[in-house]
Design a protein that fits this description.
CATH architecture of the largest domain: 3-Layer(aba) Sandwich
Helix content: 25-40%
Strand order of the largest sheet: 10-9-8-11-13-12
CATH superfamily of the largest domain: P-loop containing nucleotide triphosphate hydrolases
Order of helices and strands: EEEHHEEEEEHEHEHEHEEHHH
Bound molecules: guanosine-5'-diphosphate, magnesium ion, zinc ion
Mean pLDDT: 85
Largest sheet: 6 strands, mixed
Length: 308
């Protein structure tokens, strides 16, 4: 039997097949090779055999078509890859236009992560009731200019929800983004009956704009329109997993036409003469804010020397 891992917690894996969901454990020989969380994860296609009623054993994890991963701190200060969801069709990265204020450099990290994992990515700008259209365009317009789809939504005003629902139909999607932006609220509205826990954002005091953690094990939620969605809590910030500094530029999709045009190959686009990327920045073809993001991330990568 082949199924999809829809939930993983405390060494158990819930595997959805065509007609049922079984709680499974890993066969001993699978466990030996690595730690369990690396072996099977949300979205994995697995081959299982039923054991007792309602339960089964995972015999094999089928090769992943794609994955969303982040870099996590492993034992002895060594970084390890932490696969969040496997076999993803798209990453839906949700930010709020306010409360919490959108942190565009964090948005850039999500986008780079998607680009370098070769994932399609859609941006959702939620809480549009809190800002004017002009204010929203000032923040997110540049992402549309460089080719990303930006869906403007407001759960509170019931705006844009149908567009998000249509975007999810028939695909495996992961919702990501900072805490408190309305990911769970949006999913509850898209599929009434889900009753995902939502957290109230403190409107006053020092906690204003920070949102709140709501900790539950991530799951893949089956959608009535077909497909699955992962509401992945706790992704405060995605590390850039295994990004050699020299590949960071490829994660900025609007840089791509210029990368090959630089005089020096490879070019860091930081200080070399005749750099086509920097020329594009001074001509306004590449947005300055995105170039700043690039520089900061590049400096971070070389400082950490995990870029390899
Ligand atoms: N003003 C406004 N508030 C919203 C909207 N969507 C969600 N919220 C509120 O934002 C808070 C955090 O929502 P939640 O769904 O838990 O965010 P998550 O952490 O991203 O899952 C809750 O108090 C929601 O009621 C919206 O479109 N407009
Ligand atoms: Mg949530
Ligand atoms: Zn260059």
């Amino acid at each position: 039997m082949i199924g999809t891992v829809v939930k993983a917690q405390s060494g158990f894996f819930w595997v959805a097949t065509d007609d049922t969901t079984l709680r499974c454990t890993l066969r001993g020989r699978l466990k030996k090779s690595r730690v369990a969380s690396d072996i099977a994860t949300l979205g994995d296609s697995v081959r299982i055999t039923p054991t007792i009623p309602g339960e089964g054993a995972i015999e094999e994890v089928l090769p992943r078509q794609s994955k969303l991963a982040r870099r996590a701190a492993g034992a002895k200060g060594v970084w390890k890859e932490d696969v969040i969801v496997a076999n993803l069709d798209q990453l839906v990265t949700v930010f709020a236009v306010a409360q919490p204020e959108p942190h565009v450099r964090m948005l850039d990290r999500f986008l780079i992560n998607a680009e370098l994992n070769d994932l399609d990515v859609v941006i959702v700008a939620n809480k549009c009731d809190l800002r004017s259209d002009d204010e929203i365009r000032a923040i997110f317009g540049l992402y549309e200019e460089i080719g990303y789809t930006v869906l403007r939504t407001s759960v509170r005003a019931g705006r844009g929800v149908d567009e998000v629902r249509a975007q999810l139909a028939g695909k495996i999607s992961a919702f990501s983004g900072p805490s408190g932006v309305g990911k769970s609220s949006l999913l509850n509205t898209i599929q009434p009956g889900l009753q995902l826990k939502t957290g109230a954002v403190s409107e006053s005091g020092s906690n204003a704009n920070k949102g709140r953690h709501t900790t539950v094990a991530p799951e893949l939620i089956p959608l009535h329109g077909g497909g699955y969605v992962a509401d992945t809590p706790g992704i405060r910030e995605l590390g850039l997993w295994q990004v050699p500094a020299s590949e960071l530029d490829w994660g900025f999709r609007e840089f791509r036409p210029f990368i090959e045009e630089c005089y020096f190959q490879p070019c860091s686009h930081m200080h070399e003469p005749d750099c086509a990327v920097r020329d594009a920045v001074s001509q306004g073809t590449i947005h300055e804010a995105r170039y700043d993001s690039y520089v900061r991330l590049r400096e971070e990568l070389s400082a950490e020397t995990v870029g390899r």
